[in-house]
Amino acid sequence: MAPLRSWFNIPRGSHFSLANIPFGIISTSSSRNPHVAVAIGDHALDLDVFAANNGFSALSTIQPHQTVFSQPLLNAFAALGRPMHSIVRKYIESVFLENTPFPQVLKDNAALQKEALIPLKEVQTHLPFHIGDYTDFYAGLNHAYNVGVLFRGPENALQPNYKHLPVGYHGRASSVVVSGTPIRRPNGQILENPATGKKAPIFSPCRKLDIELELGAFVCRPNKMGEPIPIDEAEESIFGVVLMNDWSARDIQAWEYVPLGPFNAKNFATTISPWVVLMDALEPFRAKGLENDCEILPYLKEKNEKSFYDINLQVDLKTSSGSSTTVTKTSATNLLWSYPQMLTHHTITGCPMQVGDLLGSGTISGLEPSERGSLLEQNENGKTPIKLSGGEERKFLEDGDVVTITGVCGSDEEALVGFGGCVGRIEPALSM
């Protein structure tokens, strides 16, 4: 399909083309209270201002609900449901079309353009949702295998349950932060020399601080306690997707995770990108995920095997010297379980989900070393330093390092569907 043309100047190569229209929360110098916006090119369309100036005059279905755009979070808009999200997104798209059927709304309204279209460099982005609960899954088969080989050998790399259910654990919602938030190196208990006979920890700043390249999905439809979400209905409960870096303290994790799994090693920070790409925008990029060679139980079987998305993912590491290196390039198709499967399995017990709940995909890795979504995999748990530009090396993250995750669908420079950036800078641990 030919890319959509707009009367508005959308830079070629922008992640926020007319084919995207992602939603987020912004504040500005003139409106310091956070509220809803969409990203378009290198601008944000302030939907609070847009709605207050009759921007939705040609969309009667949203008019009784326009107060959602003045809210400081996307929960209220998300709760309106997938059909409404789709209608609003298509309407905004139509307003920006070169041959828009509604020129009076914005194209011919210079005053509203000046007030509602704000350069992205001039807005402050905020956490898009109130996140009541956060569940991190482990759906990246290649990552799970690579890490399993490191600690258990190739024969026992995957646990017997891995291909039968989406493995997950309950994370810490209070430490999910928006892109750009500094990340404090955590302190904790570590084994200074795991090979010694006596297992006695020391208290120390984390020495093996790592990244985890993930996607996150937000829930938009609650289910009642005791009532699971059927697999055929699960897609309707997913609002959209963000990039995610689930920072990991590998040495703290190695000491604490038996027998109950991650705790302090994962609760100190999870970074997400600010713009939520709606499922409708991702629809043209549906793809198959990794093949599961196990017969899964009927409640997890999907009618559409293309329930994954062809998102090109990249991780860049910039050191305090200013040198930047691309350390990972991979695809979001490197997942064994889809978001509908994760959600259905999560609720099969009758667990009640709420609007704004966040589901992490788990680390996404390809087969090649350059496609691995964590430093742990790339350096084989510290055995092999990673070569960076300018002659520097890394085993794990150092203070001052800046990690940037990007993700984009498509190759047409005028019709990209991207996520912007997911950025975090490592700050020194507190002295205790």
Automatic annotation (TrEMBL):
Residues 19-128 form the Fumarylacetoacetase N-terminal domain. It comes from the Eukaryota. One of its GO terms (molecular function) is metal ion binding. Keywords: Calcium, Hydrolase, Magnesium, Metal-binding, Phenylalanine catabolism, Tyrosine catabolism. It catalyses: 4-fumarylacetoacetate + H2O = acetoacetate + fumarate + H(+). Residues 136-406 form the Fumarylacetoacetase-like C-terminal domain. Pathway: Amino-acid degradation; L-phenylalanine degradation; acetoacetate and fumarate from L-phenylalanine: step 6/6. GO terms for biological process: homogentisate catabolic process; L-phenylalanine catabolic process; L-tyrosine catabolic process. It holds the Pfam family FAA_hydrolase. The active site is at H143. This is Fumarylacetoacetase.
